[in-house]
Amino acid sequence: MSRSWEPLDVKQYRSWNDDAVDGAFVASRDREVMQSPMGVVGTNPPTSALLASSAGLGWSTMSAELRSHAVGETPGNVLKDVEICLVIAGNDDGLVRRTGAGTYQEASPKTGAIWLSPAGIADSEIAITAPIPQTLHLYLPTALFDDLKDDFNLPVVAPAHSIRYVTGIRDEVIQHIGFSILSELTSETAASRMYVKAASLTLAARLLQKYFDGGPPAATDSSASGLDNVRLRRVLEHISGNVGDDLTLADLAEVAGYSPFHFARKFTLSMGVSPHRYIARMRLESAMAELAVGKQSLAQIALNAHFSSQASFTRAFHRATGMTPKEYQRSRL
Hints:
Elements: H1 10-19, E1 35-36, E2 39-40, E3 48-53, E4 63-69, E5 72-75, E6 82-89, E7 96-100, E8 103-107, E9 114-117, E10 123-128, E11 132-140, H2 142-147, E12 166-169, H3 172-186, H4 192-210, H5 229-242, H6 249-256, H7 260-271, H8 275-293, H9 298-304, H10 310-321, H11 325-332
Antiparallel strand pairs: 1-2, 3-4, 4-11, 5-10, 6-9, 6-11, 7-8, 7-10, 9-12
Helix pairs in contact: 3-4, 4-8, 5-6, 6-7, 8-9, 8-11, 9-10
């Protein structure tokens, strides 16, 4: 990976959570309690503590939680989503033991280690022998894998149930995407929801390509080339005319005539930036223009730029320009 990551301060997460808005879709919320192969919330005493959550950010294709895990044993549970556990700050001296899919597995929860659990898997027992300070849990709904069936020419009815049950692996692709999702939790951007959609598709595709029980499927389109000029112009005009609306990856893919998975890759090849980064940049430019006019409140400008709060907008604006929105506005009025 190109950058090193340090364990994040829990106060940062609590501050971020104070900015969040209630009501986001969370893929695993249809369980009675939040469950994962590294602990079950709601046990007494608890084996897992929630440090941060994607609840409130409007993510529709993935939910994310940062958790700390204490020493202990938990009963098994059945996951309704595919789960990826990425150790953010680990413990080289401990072990995580679990039994599922007819196998016993154990591995050291070192930083960067990954656990995969397919939808429908039933763990019989999970044991943690030493505290794990920070683990990122990503939940991918089964519908996400169903959406990729045509892209990968999958013959199976339920591909999310055919992901391998593996423990303590290393995968640089999953690790890189996981850390980028963690960054979105702490530093919201103007197109976070679009990025998470693309990231969730990429994660699901990675699991199908490398950890699919039926063997790696072949994609029907390699997406090795970018968009042709006609399609690219059509997409850019659509973005320009609707940048203030709730643009989605599916909307842009439909304009281009591709699936969301292939569109995201082709757009990036054509433009040199991903769709979410391109849209975030355009929304920032629009916000700068609104600030210069000075007719709207900061809260309204933040809402127009698709941030969940004024505080999130201010942080993102300062990262991009080196000034707060108020400072920028005073320099233009």
